[in-house]
Amino acid sequence: MPVDTSQPYDDSNIFARILRGEIPAAKVYEDDWALAFNDIAPQAPTHVLVIPKGAYVCWDDFAAQASDAEIAGYVRAIGIVARQLGVDTPGYRLLANCGLDSHQEVPHLHVHLFAGRKLGHMLVPE
Ligand code: AMP
Q1: Domain-wise residue ranges, the chain
Q2: Is 104 in the pocket of ligand 1 (CB under 6 A)?
C-alpha cells in the first residue's frame, strides 16, 4: 500500500521496528545517524536500504525537520556505505521514493542503493 505522506509518522512501521531491534535485518552498516541493511526483495545484485535513525516519513519531511547533524550524518552514511560495499567503481544508483505517486511503501525515509549490474537509463518509460 503506497504511503500517504500527509499522514504523521507511524511508529509501528517495519523500519521503525528494525531500528528498535524487534525484527531482524541483514545489517551492512550502522552508526549514530543511520542503519543500512539488505533489501528483503533485492532488485539488483546489491540492493541496500539506508535509513536515518530519526522518525521521518520521507525526504522533504527530513529536510524540513532534522537537525544539521542528522542530515550530515545520514548523507555521509550513504556515501560510506557505497564505498564500504565497493560499488563506487563501477557505479551505483540511489533512489528515494516519497509519497503516493512514487509508490513509497514503507513510511520511514529510506534511500535504496542499487549496484552490481547495468542499471539502465533512469525511469522506465510509460
Ligand atoms: P519503497 O517502495 O521505496 O517504500 O521500498 C520499500 C522497500 O522495503 C522494498 O524494496 C521492500 O522490499 C523493502 N522491505 C520491506 N520490508 C523489509 C524488511 N523487513 N527488510 C528489508 N527490506 C524490506
Answers
A1: 14-115
A2: yes
- What CATH number matches the domain at 14-115, 3.40.605.10, 3.40.50.2000, 3.50.50.60, 3.30.428.10? 3.30.428.10
Three-state DSSP state, 10: coil
The verdict on the CB of residue 35 being under 6 Å from ligand 1 is: no
Whether the upstream peptide bond of residue 90 has omega within 30° of 0, thus cis, is yes
DSSP alpha helix (H) spans, 59-106: 59-65, 68-85
Query: Which pLDDT does position 5 carry in this prediction?
Result: 78
Laid out side by side, the sheet with 46-52 consists of 27-30, 34-38, 46-52, 111-115, 92-95
| Secondary structure class of 29 (helix, strand, coil) | strand
Cα separation values, 40 from 10, 14, 54, 66, 120, Å: 21, 12, 21, 27, 22
Higher pLDDT, 31 or 5: 31
Count of CB atoms situated within 10 Å of the CB of 64: 8
